[in-house]
Amino acid sequence: MNTFKTLGISDKIIRALNEMGFEExxxxxEQAIPVLTAGRDLIGQAQTGTGKTAAFxxxxxxxxxxxxxxxxxxxxxxTRELAIQVAEELNRIGQFTEAxxxxxxxxxxxxxxxxxxxxxxxxxxxxxxxxxxxxxxxTIRLGDIRTVILDEAxxxxxxxxxxxxxxxxxATPDERQTILFSATMPRPIQxxxxxxxxxxxxxxxxxxxxxxxxxxxxxxxIQDNQKFDVLCRLLDMQAPELSIVFGRTxxxxxxxxxxxxxxxxxxxxxxGDLTQGRREIVLRxxxxxxxxxxxxxxxxxxxxxxxxxxxxxxxxxxxxxDSYVHRIGRTGRAGQAGLALTLVSPRELSHLRYxxxxxxxxxxxxxxxxxTEAVEGQQRLAVEKLLHQxxxxxxxxxxxRAKELLASVDSVSLLSAALKLMTKEPDTTPVKLLAATPLxxxxxxxxxxxxxxxxxxxxxxxxxxxxxx
Length: 469
Ligand SMILES: Nc1ncnc2c1ncn2[C@@H]1O[C@H](COP(=O)(O)OP(=O)(O)OP(=O)(O)O)[C@@H](O)[C@H]1O
Ligand SMILES: [Mg+2]
What we know:
Elements: H1 11-19, H2 27-37, E1 42-46, H3 52-63, E2 73-76, H4 80-93, E3 101-104, H5 110-117, E4 123-126, H6 128-137, E5 147-151, H7 153-158, H8 162-170, E6 177-182, H9 187-196, E7 201-205, E8 215-221, H10 227-238, E9 242-246, H11 250-262, E10 267-270, H12 276-288, E11 293-296, E12 309-314, H13 321-328, E13 338-344, H14 349-359, E14 364-365, H15 371-392, H16 396-408, H17 411-422
Parallel strand pairs: 1-6, 1-7, 2-4, 2-5, 3-4, 5-6, 8-13, 8-14, 9-11, 9-12, 10-11, 12-13
Helix pairs in contact: 2-3, 3-4, 6-8, 10-15, 13-14
The structure holds adenosine-5'-triphosphate and magnesium ion.
Magnesium ion binds next to α3.
């Protein structure tokens, strides 16, 4: 088994990786790093949350020359939040080197970006549209680019960025190294690769399933108008550390976030119609746990890495299997466990089956939780908290008062009252959600086909490193 050292990583970077808590390379890192340091083009596919960012990020810093202070590498990402996150991860990896990465994305003051560009970042992490703006203004020149990385390339194609990507690649030198990374590899990516990559290595760390085994997957069959009450029950019973609730449309996300807030949950919504400032505030609050439920459209499905996300709720079933894989991949990251639960209306059941077939993983049906079960779940949590506190001790300050109380009230009533106070009783504040817009399957999705053609590469390379989950 390789270590970062045997992969030839320099000490400055190993020191940073140690600080980040990376002890050994993940399988995709182990296989991609040697190929990338050798300068080859690469198509890399590995399950969600398995460290693809560092797989391209580590070799990037190894290759940066500190001579001409020009932009030497560009990473393209489909969303602004991902640009920010990837730049942060790169800057952690490169913290002891001379090089740094700058995120450049739409919705942020362009003059401020131009000012940051004066600090001469060697790596730019950008959304395609904003990078094009800078190219037109000549505030970013791509003439010295040696490496281009397309993270989540298929999503950039879905979003209609193909022309921008072509122009960006066209503005970079032909000798550049081009790298493509995603958890899923639908067919249009193969076409893109054929056109822009030179004799690429294909590395796929693919287990039998597209999704990470550590993510438990369940669904509940339910009518649309019952979904919200059931979501609240699930949240009460399961008490996720952090959770993401995915809705189909922006309007749906707004309504859901409002409805959850009305019932006393610490929730907020994120989608593409909010101002960039607002999007960043919401995400920051979620990362800090100031809110613990993030209600989101597809904008949060790709690449987002937030520690502590224990539950994913698909309030609406995703459009296609890829979207499902990426959405639920926001949990179960870096070896952590997670639960993904999808609410499915009877009409959408065939679509769920199609997702199962494509991801090669059964999604378990669970019954609709009853209101009584929700209350029981809550009580169980209160008891757990109480017992935990008993174990933790440090109760001397309270014992005198407890004895006084026990002299006048019987112990069962007393404890019941304490539990009642600690239990979040179901909140039935009436809320109104408009009916869901019906599921529209992309024409290329093909879920009507009997034998779905998935368009995925067949796996050639199996994970060699079983110790990294
Ligand atoms: N070698 C490692 N050891 C421990 N943790 C790691 C290692 N490499 C990456 N991580 C951590 O694992 C998490 C997931 O990594 P990353 O975001 O790169 O996943 P990904 O494969 O790009 O997932 P996605 O397909 O969802 O974009 C991050 O928090 C990252 O810091
Ligand atoms: Mg990623």
